Amino acid sequence: MKLSFPLIFLFVIFSINLGATQLIDRPTDGRQYETLTLGFAESLNFQNPFDLETNKVELHIQQPDFSRLVLSFFYDGLNENNIERWEARFSPKQAGTYFFSFIINGIIQEQFELPVESNDEEQRGGLILSDKFGVFKYESGEPFRGIGINVCWTGDYEHYFKKMQASGMNMTRIWICPWHLSFEWQQTGLGKYDLNSANRLDNILQLAEKYGIYILLCIDYHGIAQKGQGYFRENKWLENPYNKINGGPCANAEDIFTSNKAKIFFKKKYKYLVSRYGHSPYIASWEFINEADLMAGKSTQVNRWHIEMAEYVQSIDVNDRLVSTSSTRSHVEKLVDAFKSPVMDFVMFHIYNNLNFAPYIVDLHENTLDYYRKPVALGEFGIDYRSAERTYKADSQAIGLHNAIWAGWFSETPIIPMSWWWDNYIDPYNYWYEFVNLSRFAEKMDLNVNHLEFKTIIPGSLESDSTKQVQSMIRCIYFGDDAALWFKNDFYQWSLISEGLLPTETGSLIQNIPELVPGNYTINWYDPQSGLFSENEIEAEVKGDGILRLTIPSFVKDLACLVTRED
């Protein structure tokens, strides 16, 4: 967020005494992408210290390139002496000298400078958009693809983050909701926030940094003002502090998107969250609402509300974290305009109860990407939304999970589909190996290239009978001069196997892989089921027509390979 300041900010810096009395605790220097924490203890006696819109306790920042930012200090309760604690957290993106002014309600309290060193690639910063829809990138420039699962609530994030890191994952999704990290609800009332939850989220972000897990932070879920009761009876409108019966401004659930007073309270909450947590590079994105299309309210109102809130958050977030929201595929119209707006950085859908995930996931990414012209992610998926018990009963072999994440890796998306049922399906049945096997293959791919393309290839014919086409789905990622391929037997899908229709061997096939740069290549075969590369590499040549003519060994379920150019 860049703002223009009164000229007084420009210079007082050159005339002030930088050795004046220090009022706030602060570091003497910093490093690029690492958090600077500044704080002070003083009882300012505001009517509501959580209100960072009315109470301007600010850090005005001039960056080395002379651009200017405004960051709010946030209230963090009382210290042991019963004095208010205030803190500001800032992660510098540039190396060089920063100039700061500490200002309360327009009055300068202190000014100082602080040098920031380059990080020399030890830290890569947060996530930003790339010029390719298939990847995000770190602030330092390297490409990023998210592999992860939902862990929306748990009492032990270290348990999950440790297993996720060991499985090659780098992303999760966490909810703020009435039963987890409850922030603004009945116990606080509107405009005041639960500091126990706030401190716990601080601790979760520290764990995220320790284990390298980026977080899609979902700020509210659809049950706060749902249309209808919901399958899980999740509608909490009667408990919602925005409800008029609880002293809020909204007579009806749909008013949450139209009431100006409600919007003011949402913005105050977002400002506190952004000020307190936006410093962390492990906040991958602010997600306004889980499955917002399930909420009460007309489509136009829901779309306009999201656009207004996204514009607001982008205007105050000095750390420029990504912004999105999420939707099922049930009422897509409720978020079409919001997702098409440039203020939404990427599109996020949830899908459940699909009989054949692999082709559906590929088609969904391709079609929605073509429509929205921005990155598309599947923030939730599962073969049955109703329960983990039903999911396991239908798919004890985790075939739906397997096909969804492999199809996701081979789809043009910066975040592969993120499974639900983390605590009563993936963890207890130890399906972590599915992610181990995918990440072991994925880590061999260098995505830091100019050319990155995702395609479906028409299956070839049987080696034994050239008149018969193999019934297989073939996806290819071209990256630089290299390629990766995934072959999936059409009959390897959970819905068929649950009915006892088992896949049989495809037979070896003759496959043309087009659009390669002429030269010599090495082919490394990989078994997605065992997570092992074959010890036998194949040498092949691509001639002037750019086609690799490859014999694919027979397989029952799926098969993958890396095609690497040697010269």
What keyword list fits this structure?
567 residues; alpha+beta; Immunoglobulin-like; TIM Barrel; 3 domains; 7-stranded antiparallel β-sheet; 5-stranded mixed β-sheet; 12 helices; 23% helix; 28% strand; globular
Q: Could you explain how this protein is built, in words?
A:
By secondary structure, the chain is an alpha+beta fold. The chain has 3 domains: 7-117, Sandwich (Immunoglobulin-like), CATH 2.60.40; 127-442, Glycosidases (TIM Barrel); 452-565, Immunoglobulin-like (Sandwich), CATH 2.60.40. 23% of the residues lie in helices and 28% in strands. The protein contains 12 helices and 28 strands. A hairpin with a 2-residue loop joins strand 21 (472-479) and strand 22 (482-489).
Rg is: 26 Å
Name the average pLDDT.
Answer: 94
* Category from helices, strands and their pairing: alpha+beta
**Unreliable stretches, pLDDT < 50, 5 or more residues?**
1-20
CATH architecture of the largest domain: Alpha-Beta Barrel
The number of distinct helices, counting runs of at least 4 residues, comes to 12
How much helix, percentage-wise, in residues? 10-25%
Number of domains: 3
Summary?
It contains twelve helices and 28 strands. By secondary structure, the chain is an alpha+beta fold. Helix 2 packs parallel to helix 3 and helix 9 (399-409) packs parallel to helix 11.
Give the SSE map.
Elements (H helix, E strand, L loop, with lengths): L6 H7 L16 E2 L4 E6 L15 E6 L5 E5 L1 E5 L5 E7 L5 E9 L2 E11 L9 E3 L6 E3 L4 E2 L3 E3 L6 H10 L4 E5 L19 H17 L2 E8 L38 H18 L5 E8 L8 H18 L5 E3 L11 H5 L6 E6 L4 H16 L3 E7 L5 H7 L4 H11 L12 H5 L5 H11 L9 E5 L4 E2 L9 E8 L2 E8 L4 H4 L11 E5 L5 E9 L4 E2 L4 E5 L5 E5 L5 E8 L2
Helix pairs in contact: 2-3, 4-5, 7-9, 9-11
